[in-house]
Specification:
Layout lengths: L2 H29 L10 H11 L6 E5 L6 E3 L4 E5 H5 L3 H18 L3 H29 L3 H38 L8 H38 L1
Parallel strand pairs: 1-3
Antiparallel strand pairs: 2-3
Helix pairs in contact: 1-7, 2-4, 4-6, 4-7, 5-6, 6-7
Keywords: Membrane, Transmembrane, Transmembrane helix
InterPro entries: Zn_peptidase_2
Protein name: Zinc metallopeptidase
């Protein structure tokens, strides 16, 4: 790989996630200032959708920070950042509905969600050890060690890739729920979708960067063997 290509490649690795983060923060900042027509807080939105789907045992709690919203499948809790929990914005409603989408996936035993949960310990171990194996393999010109690092890294990359359908499905469920339950009006669908699409970009960017890095190391492995 030429120096110019290397500069472009590493530039993309840095810029793609930054661009995705800027998009989601921009969309969130803009639509967190726009009140939703129902006047419901994020907590109200989450509770309404949960109850509409019979998930009365799933709690809704506030959590500190911004965009720290998540669903905890172990505790069966939807946690919303305080701004979304108490606020009545379009962004807050969209984020709350998205996290409830994960709770619905959990209740329905959604296959990709189960697969992602099963990958967590493997992916964590793979991401921790792969860097050292790959670095040692490159420095020592040990193709076997490099290959082992690539195998472990593949588990972490697979986790990133499997995350995509999980997140897109949760957003799709969120749009359906906020419309079906009357939480938003038809003229608010566009703004809600913008928030959800911007958030999805961060996962796409993470998966793309992970795949690019994996491909680079695979190429290095073949080049090492050719030598």
């Amino acid at each position: 790989m030429s120096l110019t290509m290397m500069i472009i490649y590493f530039g993309l690795l840095i810029l793609i996630p930054i661009w995705a983060q800027m998009r989601v923060k921009s969309a969130y900042r803009k639509y967190s200032q726009v009140q939703n027509s129902s006047g419901m807080s994020g907590a109200d939105v989450a509770r309404k959708i949960l109850d509409e789907n019979g998930l009365f045992d799933v709690a809704v709690e506030p959590v500190k920070g911004q965009l720290t919203d998540h669903y905890d499948p172990r505790s069966k809790v939807v946690r919303l950042s305080e701004g979304n929990y108490y606020g009545q914005s379009v962004a807050g409603a969209a984020v709350a509905a998205h996290e409830v989408g994960h709770a619905i996936q959990d209740a329905e035993d959604y296959a990709f969600l189960r697969f992602r949960h099963a990958l967590v310990p493997i992916a964590n171990f793979g991401s921790n050890i792969s860097f050292f194996l790959i670095l040692a393999g490159i420095l020592m010109q040990a193709s076997g060690m490099l290959l082992l690092g690539i195998v472990f890294m593949s588990a972490a990359v697979l986790f990133q890739v499997v995350t995509l359908p999980v997140e897109f499905n949760a957003s799709s469920r969120a749009m359906h729920q906020v419309v079906a339950t009357g939480i938003i009006r038809n003229d608010e669908e566009r703004e809600t979708r913008k928030v959800l699409d911007a958030a999805a970009l961060t996962y796409v960017a993470a998966a793309l960067v992970a795949v690019l890095e994996l491909v680079r190391f695979v190429m290095m492995y073949f080049m090492m063997n050719d030598d």
